[in-house]
């Protein structure tokens, strides 16, 4: 069937040139994915990220991952020599379920490329890799305590008080949230005091060289994670949209801080699920009073400064779990539901992968309506997909561009043993 939708062929990285032209001088590029377990989503985001770094001077990548784990990768890829054995060994740090989300061979290959690229750059020009997420309450508290004890600064007492406040809950933030749900005593004041003490310390004794400045920033960010994670887990217990909003507001706060750290002319690439990077105002999420980083970035930075790219597919295979914490499986992704966004693309394009630009899509009146748009989470039941895996979306407004991949393959996870006491990764659709 001849295509009624304007598209560009998508076969190799060279075919991304129209997308780079459309991105223009945008300061932040948000790159999505319709699942956390699809090989092509990772490889196409990698291909685009490499071109953005080489051709447009983007300076760091911020991902939907925990700050401490990503900061370990960031430190490793900026060293002149390989100090971590192999990329696969380095990625064992991602041991929170779903471990495959960042512990996979596709990311290992990208980490190796980042290290090679950085090895030819001066210290101040090396590409960074950071985490945007809010889950790592206990790990972040431990990292703060180690940092302040090494520095011997005034924040030590505050960090120890916060650490001891959470200690009775056995490093389980959900146990903490349940314990404080019906009492007036919690650890909010303690984690806030740590963040304030670290910020005062940085203001009074700001490091002059970049590596030390980044270490200080990393400690401050861990303190911010602890503050917002404490809020997140209490909100999660109450239910509703509050915990989702705490999480995405933290992502935006972290992105803004990273842009400040790297300077007024800095440029950032964000990797996260479509549900985070596609502007929530143009989806059914708006009715639930949910926001996301795609919306917040446009609001805070200006729409002309932000370019969002959705990614999705018609059918294939995916890595996911049947239940939270279950072993991962390779599952069949069935053909998209009739009249969904993915089904329309499949029917009109007849099979090949394609790049679509929203400015051109807006000329089609048939697309100026809410269409079901597939979203697969880390927990997935293909046989029940029609009951909860489609987000009603106004595609040309939700994204600035879209990569359509007709048939996709499963991600290639590393063999990483997940740690216990991990929180659910909540999505409004697709679990």
Automatic annotation (TrEMBL):
Pfam families: Erythro_esteras. This is Erythromycin esterase family protein. InterPro entries: Emycin_Estase (IPR007815), Hydrolase/PRTase-associated (IPR052036), UCP036794_erythomycin (IPR014622). Gene3D superfamilies: Biosynthetic Protein domain, EreA-like (biosynthetic domain), EreA-like, domain 2.
